[in-house]
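Q: what sequence does this backbone want?
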């Protein structure tokens, strides 16, 4: 391939570029295989819990039809902080979850959240709700779209409304509706 690009007078450069590409591809493949092996080593219920958690987080991030780099970092961090995954694995799992959330979106949302709910403890469900709010707040403001999706997720997680209100209150100052009311009051 690089011989055609560089031409016959630059064959050594073409050979070096081709070799570097081959080495890079082999390294990536080995990394991906190691990560997949780690996921396959998990007990099936744990792997399902990790997958459904990641998808639910990606669903919250994709509420406005865009997943920012900040939201991606928050998702990766959440999966690492809760001891679910190491850094390399969390990066791959988050990317896969983002892809699925964009590709299948609404058709899988309820099914996956219901799966998560059946596998998770109440504490884990509360943690995921809190994480969904944190993902929405990654940009500094939780938009109306993000808030609506997080409210829907909370509903599907079957959490007591008082718990949902308590978690939402932690992010009160980040809600775009609250900020809009404050701007009106300050101007009036």
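A:
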């Amino acid at each position: 391939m690089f011989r055609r690009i560089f031409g016959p007078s630059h064959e050594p450069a073409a050979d070096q570029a081709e070799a570097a590409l081959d080495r890079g591809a082999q390294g990536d493949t080995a990394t991906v295989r190691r990560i997949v092996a780690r996921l396959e080593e998990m007990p099936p219920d744990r792997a399902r819990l990790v997958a459904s958690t990641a998808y639910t987080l990606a669903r919250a991030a994709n509420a406005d039809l865009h997943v920012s780099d900040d939201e991606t970092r928050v998702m990766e961090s959440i999966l690492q902080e809760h001891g679910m995954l190491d850094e390399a694995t969390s990066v791959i799992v988050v990317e896969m979850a983002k892809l699925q959330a964009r590709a299948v979106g609404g058709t899988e949302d309820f099914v996956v959240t219901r799966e998560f709910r059946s596998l998770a403890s109440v504490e884990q469900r509360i943690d995921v709700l809190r994480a969904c709010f944190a993902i929405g707040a990654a940009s500094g403001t939780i938009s109306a779209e993000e808030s609506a999706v997080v409210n829907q997720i909370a509903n599907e997680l079957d959490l007591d409304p008082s718990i949902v209100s308590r978690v939402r209150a932690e992010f009160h100052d980040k809600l775009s509706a609250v900020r809009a009311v404050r701007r009106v009051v300050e101007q009036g």
